[in-house]
Design brief:
Layout lengths: L7 H12 L3 H9 L3 H15 L5 H6 L3 H8 L13 H6 L24
Amino acid sequence: MDLKNLPVTQRVNALVKALDGAKRTNEALARCTDGEAMLDVLLDASSKLGLGLTRWELENTPPIRDWIWWKNKEAPLTIGDSKPRYQQDGGQGKPSPTGSGEGEPPRRRFLGLF
Protein backbone atom coordinates (compact mmCIF):
# COMPACT_ATOMS: atom_id res chain seq x y z
CA MET A 1 0.00 0.00 0.00
CA ASP A 2 1.36 3.40 -1.01
CA LEU A 3 1.13 5.77 1.96
CA LYS A 4 1.19 8.81 -0.33
CA ASN A 5 -2.32 7.93 -1.53
CA LEU A 6 -3.84 8.27 1.95
CA PRO A 7 -5.66 11.48 2.92
CA VAL A 8 -3.49 14.15 4.54
CA THR A 9 -4.99 13.68 8.01
CA GLN A 10 -4.22 9.95 7.96
CA ARG A 11 -0.65 10.60 6.81
CA VAL A 12 -0.16 13.18 9.57
CA ASN A 13 -1.60 10.73 12.12
CA ALA A 14 0.82 8.07 10.86
CA LEU A 15 3.69 10.53 11.32
CA VAL A 16 2.56 11.38 14.86
CA LYS A 17 2.35 7.66 15.75
CA ALA A 18 5.80 7.08 14.28
CA LEU A 19 7.21 9.93 16.40
CA ASP A 20 5.96 8.27 19.57
CA GLY A 21 9.07 6.65 20.98
CA ALA A 22 11.44 7.97 18.28
CA LYS A 23 14.07 9.26 20.69
CA ARG A 24 16.41 10.96 18.20
CA THR A 25 13.62 12.71 16.31
CA ASN A 26 11.98 13.90 19.51
CA GLU A 27 15.31 15.24 20.77
CA ALA A 28 15.80 17.06 17.46
CA LEU A 29 12.32 18.56 17.74
CA ALA A 30 13.03 19.69 21.30
CA ARG A 31 16.25 21.44 20.18
CA CYS A 32 14.44 23.42 17.46
CA THR A 33 14.38 27.15 18.10
CA ASP A 34 11.18 27.86 16.17
CA GLY A 35 8.40 26.30 14.13
CA GLU A 36 10.33 26.50 10.85
CA ALA A 37 13.11 24.33 12.27
CA MET A 38 10.47 21.89 13.52
CA LEU A 39 8.99 21.72 10.04
CA ASP A 40 12.40 20.82 8.62
CA VAL A 41 12.75 17.92 11.09
CA LEU A 42 9.18 16.76 10.45
CA LEU A 43 9.62 16.94 6.66
CA ASP A 44 12.72 14.80 6.97
CA ALA A 45 10.85 12.26 9.11
CA SER A 46 7.96 12.28 6.64
CA SER A 47 10.25 11.59 3.70
CA LYS A 48 12.01 8.74 5.56
CA LEU A 49 8.63 7.15 6.27
CA GLY A 50 7.50 7.64 2.66
CA LEU A 51 4.49 9.76 3.64
CA GLY A 52 5.14 12.51 1.10
CA LEU A 53 3.82 15.32 3.28
CA THR A 54 4.50 18.88 2.18
CA ARG A 55 5.49 21.81 4.34
CA TRP A 56 2.07 23.40 3.82
CA GLU A 57 0.24 20.18 4.82
CA LEU A 58 2.25 19.91 8.03
CA GLU A 59 1.81 23.59 8.81
CA ASN A 60 -1.97 23.48 8.43
CA THR A 61 -2.98 20.06 9.78
CA PRO A 62 -3.53 19.38 13.48
CA PRO A 63 -1.87 18.33 15.74
CA ILE A 64 1.38 19.39 14.07
CA ARG A 65 -0.10 22.83 13.31
CA ASP A 66 -0.67 23.28 17.05
CA TRP A 67 2.84 22.11 17.91
CA ILE A 68 4.27 24.75 15.58
CA TRP A 69 2.09 27.49 17.09
CA TRP A 70 3.22 26.39 20.55
CA LYS A 71 6.89 26.41 19.55
CA ASN A 72 6.50 29.88 18.03
CA LYS A 73 4.84 31.03 21.26
CA GLU A 74 1.66 31.89 19.36
CA ALA A 75 -1.65 31.30 21.05
CA PRO A 76 -3.89 28.82 19.23
CA LEU A 77 -6.87 30.63 20.74
CA THR A 78 -7.30 34.33 21.29
CA ILE A 79 -9.99 36.00 23.34
CA GLY A 80 -12.00 39.05 22.36
CA ASP A 81 -12.65 40.18 18.82
CA SER A 82 -10.02 37.85 17.43
CA LYS A 83 -11.14 34.43 16.35
CA PRO A 84 -9.56 31.06 17.09
CA ARG A 85 -6.60 30.30 14.86
CA TYR A 86 -8.27 27.27 13.34
CA GLN A 87 -10.97 29.55 11.96
CA GLN A 88 -8.50 31.94 10.33
CA ASP A 89 -7.57 29.44 7.64
CA GLY A 90 -10.95 28.58 6.17
CA GLY A 91 -12.71 31.92 6.38
CA GLN A 92 -15.14 30.77 9.04
CA GLY A 93 -16.13 33.43 11.46
CA LYS A 94 -16.16 36.21 8.87
CA PRO A 95 -18.77 38.82 9.64
CA SER A 96 -21.96 38.21 7.73
CA PRO A 97 -22.76 40.66 4.96
CA THR A 98 -25.98 41.58 6.75
CA GLY A 99 -25.37 43.08 10.11
CA SER A 100 -24.40 46.39 11.58
CA GLY A 101 -24.68 49.40 9.35
CA GLU A 102 -21.72 51.36 8.15
CA GLY A 103 -20.22 53.83 10.56
CA GLU A 104 -21.12 51.81 13.64
CA PRO A 105 -18.25 50.60 15.80
CA PRO A 106 -17.66 46.85 15.77
CA ARG A 107 -19.56 44.92 18.42
CA ARG A 108 -17.56 43.45 21.25
CA ARG A 109 -18.24 39.91 22.39
CA PHE A 110 -18.55 39.13 26.06
CA LEU A 111 -17.48 35.61 26.95
CA GLY A 112 -18.80 35.75 30.48
CA LEU A 113 -17.30 34.74 33.77
CA PHE A 114 -16.92 31.13 34.68
